């Protein structure tokens, strides 16, 4: 499927995030400036729009196949994988110590967005390598790090995350896979896992499975789960590949979308001969998962942005080519000139833009907090904690809202295509089918909403949320006296005030287990998502105005997006907040 | 896919619509009372939940095939078709004169809903037979009626509607198919049509194509389109089948959903040997289409209800079986007990219920207007015109809103299933894929919104809309002093007042071609959809209370739905009206 990298947006938003998060002042990031970012993006763009994008429909049409116990990836996957790893893309944001390029996240973010737009099914191994590496860097022994990380960072081996079991999905505490301690300190792993992305494939010689399992005397529930690294082929102390480790793929799922990404069922230790090593402390497996999950959730939110962009490009292209009906002069009109089609396109455009801005700011903020890790004065530590809290607060919003919206937008893309969108050959149905899983994996929207409300908002008595609202207020107040944006700014402030008052009247007050609270968690997240997008649009406008951006058409479109978004989408935030205020009315009484 | 007929709702809503539309007082409907309706529904239910439902996934998995120029329907389709027609279901609401059962629409509505829930792809021929018959009854010569109607009504032949061409979709005025007059009064048809549902298949010996085409001297655009009946095999004067009529299927679409329904490309008169007969007057083809379209739009809205019901049943069943996480007592909890899952389920339940109520009222109202056709006094004529205007007003709302919501709900069904929903074997992805076309065919949501705003609202200077709002006001006022529903009633009245004031300030006032108007047509329709659902829920509650319905659990759930819907969904109507008020801000300025 054709995909053009949205350079102008990316460069502008990358540079803005870099400046606004103060990365220019960070010593350890010297040299890693937007100029480097642009050079990296340029390279990545060629590969994304070229090789990867052209394989996107191949992956969808052909899909992965499961034959004789083996997973065969679609035609072209192997070549593309080799090119991808040889160009060093896997290790882009991984430590130089293990062969990576050690780039900050703010540069990796637009690059990852390109991969995800170009071919989501293909590049799923990339986020796994990134997440898996971070787990090993944080929790694994030096021996494991030395044996595994160089291979993972180079892409010589891939990573698989084996979490889910048939009866343990969102509730990982229910899992049953066993890990039996052996004399030599290793563990024998035995159990069945499902939904393992790239759990088996034909791209590399080895696959490092990170498996959640229970030791025999572990406590019940989520406190008794440990993490193990379990390679498909054993790894000797010198890193050499050894014998088969009794890991069998028993099948792959026939999915609605993402056909090019194998989703495997794996049986560990069928012959009692599957050996794993403990990663981190016993029974602390879920803690390691939290590291991964934050990473994965941000990556998943970025998938929302990427699919939104891809869909928007396809819809716009079609709307500009397809004529139907006449304009006011009685001439044949391209459907982009019909106001309702324009509405759909601008909805996709403005929301994708705003979510991209949000995603890039989050990435730069993570860089800032990591760089500040070694700062010593109390003040800076506090400011850093507050930045970390901000990232933690925004993560579930970004993950859930960007993916929910990507689903809505993908539906709109099909709608713009009309009957042709329903026909698979046009390719846009694939976007919709691929997008469907993004609100489910890495924690459903419901789970993100609970995380937001219970951990992130109630967890600190509303501190991080209040700080966020203060930032939005400051920005909106700046526009309050603006002739063009005054009304929009006032509406934004009204939404902020509503959240503030709901915080004390409902969100912090209601019983933590009440239906009144949990029954409105998703509407609350939705309201926050729209509010964050509004904030980001105002933020880009304010910053670009201050920078005296001289690109007139770009600035005009930016102003148009701010007007449009606040006119069309902000009312939905108010509606969602009204739902929060209604606190689950009628919900408990219904007997199914 | 399992489907249980929602008897209780259907019977209750059928009886209510019958009473409220005054059908008990209609002489010509004597005997066609709710008792008969129940008996018919009972019979239909067996067939729907039995044969049809069990073939639903077969159709999806196997799909139709195109081999050697022929369309082969999925396994079981032929048998099911035979059973369907032998039981007389095609002619259920068609005139007895031609072999039908002549049942009123209010009885056909729940029956059709069953078919659509059970197997949408299969029964698409049914709406075609119904719509095609109505066209012939209204416009065709007696000779055509005599030769075709008995065969269509019995199901011996099917009907295909050949409208769309590659460059003429929503804009039928652009079509190019030719009709050359012959000496004997017939026409030679020549042209290519696409997207023809059941345009070819292996279910019957003959197919009656209703083809839109242009005669050589016809005016350009939509004023030069005529309608022809063009059989696959010619039909002699005595009704006997003659030779092949040069109609060739050139392929079927590979669609996202509705795999069991063949969507054909058809070439008419490749060998210059395709003969058609004019139906109605020359150049009046679109008028005939309008008859069909109203019929088809109501049927399409009902598809939204039917898919909503099917999805709700699957989601509820899964949510009651699947355990994940714990309840407040620390016990394993079925996910139906998680407030956010309950929210999704009740959203589907209440909206589907409300839309069903709306659909049944519309059907009964059509019966009432048709029965009143022969009434003579001026008063009754006026009241009847006003009823017709009501149906005309509600038609685009019902079509577009019910199908848009079916898409949202189908997405929610997958969400309730989590990862399992993304796996095709569970079957719920099919509901989402099937639903996707419903907001497109029979006029996209954008086209319905334009019809609503321009023809139905502005066409009579807001008269029909004002009458509708008055009815909603009357009902809401009744609940305004109610202890439990007072707040919900007040919110409803607020929404009505907002529509009323927007009518004069915007909807009737803005330039008819303005972006400010067309750019908010879909939000306006959405607001009206929610408002109509609210109205219907209050209406059912009021009526059942007045009837002193003694089914306590049912009444409790009904009250819960009214509370829930007004708390969760009514705010979105207000948001959509706010968007209307914002009148396309930012939309014209953006340069794509």
UniProtKB/TrEMBL annotation, chains A, B:
Residues 283-451 form the Acyl-CoA dehydrogenase/oxidase C-terminal domain. Its cofactor is FAD. Residues 78-156 form the Acyl-CoA dehydrogenase/oxidase N-terminal domain. InterPro entries: Acyl-CoA_dh-like_C_dom (IPR025878), Acyl-CoA_DH_CS (IPR006089), Acyl-CoA_Oxase/DH_mid-dom (IPR006091), Acyl-CoA_Oxase/DH_mid-dom_sf (IPR046373), AcylCo_DH-like_C (IPR036250), AcylCo_DH/oxidase_C (IPR009075), AcylCoA_DH/ox_N (IPR013786), AcylCoA_DH/ox_N_sf (IPR037069). It catalyses: 3-(methylsulfanyl)propanoyl-CoA + oxidized [electron-transfer flavoprotein] + H(+) = 3-(methylsulfanyl)acryloyl-CoA + reduced [electron-transfer flavoprotein]. It comes from the Bacteria. GO terms for molecular function: acyl-CoA dehydrogenase activity; flavin adenine dinucleotide binding. Keywords: FAD, Flavoprotein, Oxidoreductase. Residues 160-268 form the Acyl-CoA oxidase/dehydrogenase middle domain. Residues 485-584 form the Acetyl-CoA dehydrogenase-like C-terminal domain. Pfam families: Acyl-CoA_dh_1 (PF00441), Acyl-CoA_dh_C (PF12806), Acyl-CoA_dh_M (PF02770), Acyl-CoA_dh_N (PF02771). Gene3D superfamilies: Acyl-CoA dehydrogenase/oxidase, N-terminal domain, Butyryl-CoA Dehydrogenase, subunit A, domain 2, Butyryl-CoA Dehydrogenase, subunit A, domain 3. Its EC number is 1.3.99.41. Belongs to the acyl-CoA dehydrogenase family. PANTHER family: ACYL-COA DEHYDROGENASE, BROAD-SPECIFICITY LINEAR ACYL-COA DEHYDROGENASE FADE5. Involved in the assimilation of dimethylsulphoniopropionate (DMSP), an important compound in the fixation of carbon in marine phytoplankton, by mediating the conversion of 3-(methylthio)propanoyl-CoA (MMPA-CoA) to 3-(methylthio)acryloyl-CoA (MTA-CoA). This is 3-methylmercaptopropionyl-CoA dehydrogenase.
